[in-house]
Write a structure and sequence with these properties.
387 residues; mainly beta; 19-stranded mixed β-sheet; 13-stranded mixed β-sheet; 46% strand
Length: 387
């Protein structure tokens, strides 16, 4: 009684209900005013668009399968604000196609817009052209509660300005980065100089498999909640990546985090700032981290500070790499650290890092999680064979 119901078919979209703030052109629906709009049905070539500057919109997906052939299935135009809700007990899918050449994302959030994704239902996003969900300059995307599955040719869940994950169950498979906050500074014609590039993960369960970074922020990457001692939330399992966690600063306050990476497990770096910068830092204040890296386990181009938590890190497939590598200072003032890796050649930074690690009360601890213990033991055995 308090919503407008819109049902898609391949031929048309039909509406009934309270609000009149919408326009229809065949299977393309534009929302022009605040209200609650409930979408259902199945359509092979349709779209939902929130018009520029429209706020106070709630989009409820109530058993919707929607694909768009040449653009995004769902778009928030500039400075629009909307909630995208997967209704309880429903399964929903939105997708673009390989031939899409406009927005290059199945769900597009344009400059200055804000999208909040939630609900107790399930939502699958297929980014067949490029990205799954993408936010442009000064856009904000937040995720809570929803069961969200994303498959994308490039980035899975990405926003130039600010990305916040506070809950939900996320499963992301991506050819590029799985979760990303990165301003488009490379656009010579219109470079993004205002977006923050900050991806906060304070809750939820994330399972990520990616061809590039598991979680990437051009600036600040924060995991967990400051002051929290819990290792139960968030839960992040990166099963495949090039680098697991990367940001100019990487801060871990809480959580249960497993990282498998072919290169660095946790990396404080930024291509724009160069190889050396006093802005780089890895800070671990809590949580339970297990890192299996093909190169350096923890790698900061400046400082590493561990004040709490449990860190078990395996690195160094090559002679120039190590479990822990830093170019500034390494401080271990709390928590528990175990690092293992190949013996580096004399005189390298990796040797100094590894020596520092062994001299600052590092030790191993027993795992309290049987399923995770099995994974850890397998990684430990493989590393010990290399040693």
């Amino acid at each position: 009684s308090n919503a407008t119901l819109i049902r898609f078919t391949d031929a048309a979209a039909k509406a009934s209900g309270k609000y009149s703030g919408y326009e229809m052109d065949g299977t393309d629906v534009s929302i022009t005013a605040a209200g609650t709009y409930v979408f259902s049905g199945d359509c092979d070539d349709g779209s939902i668009t929130v018009k520029k500057g429209v706020t106070g919109v709630t989009i409820v997906l109530n058993g919707l399968t929607l694909t768009n052939d040449d653009s995004a299935a769902i778009t928030l135009n500039k400075t629009a604000e909307a909630s995208l809700i997967a209704a309880a007990g429903t399964t929903n899918t939105v997708a673009d196609t390989e031939g899409s050449n406009d927005e290059n994302a199945a769900v597009k959030v344009k400059s200055g817009a804000a999208l909040a994704i939630g609900g107790t239902g399930a939502l699958t996003v297929d980014g067949n052209a490029k990205n799954g969900i993408k936010g442009a300059a000064d856009a904000v995307i937040s995720v809570d509660e929803v069961a969200l599955t994303i498959e994308a040719e490039n980035d899975g869940l990405s926003c130039d300005d600010e990305l916040n994950i506070t809950g939900g169950t996320l499963s992301i498979t991506a050819g590029g980065d799985a979760v990303k906050a990165s301003p488009d500074t490379g656009d010579t014609g219109n470079p993004d100089t205002t977006s923050l590039g900050n991806v906060t993960i304070s809750g939820g369960t994330l399972t990520l498999a990616t061809g590039d970074d598991g979680v990437h922020a051009d600036n600040d990457l924060v995991i967990g909640t400051k002051g929290a001692s819990s290792t139960s939330t968030p839960r992040i399992n990166i099963t495949a990546s090039y680098e697991g966690l990367e940001g100019t600063t990487v801060t871990v306050y809480s959580g249960d985090i497993d990282v498998v990476a072919s290169d660095d497990g946790v990396n404080a770096a930024n291509s724009t700032l160069g190889e050396r910068s006093d802005k780089y830092a890895i800070s671990i204040a809590g949580g339970d981290l297990y890192i299996d890296a093909g190169s350096d386990g923890l790698d900061s181009n400046n400082d590493i500070n561990i004040t709490g938590g449990k860190v078990e890190v395996y690195g160094a497939d090559a002679m120039m790499d190590a479990a822990i590598d830093y170019d500034g200072t390494f401080t271990l003032s709390g928590g528990t650290l175990f690092g293992a890796g190949m013996e580096p050649s004399a005189g390298t930074q990796a040797l100094r890092s590894r020596a520092a690690t062994m001299n600052t009360r590092s030790r191993c601890w027993p795992s309290t999680k049987p399923s995770r213990a099995t994974t850890r033991q397998a990684g430990r055995s493989a590393r010990m064979r290399r040693l």
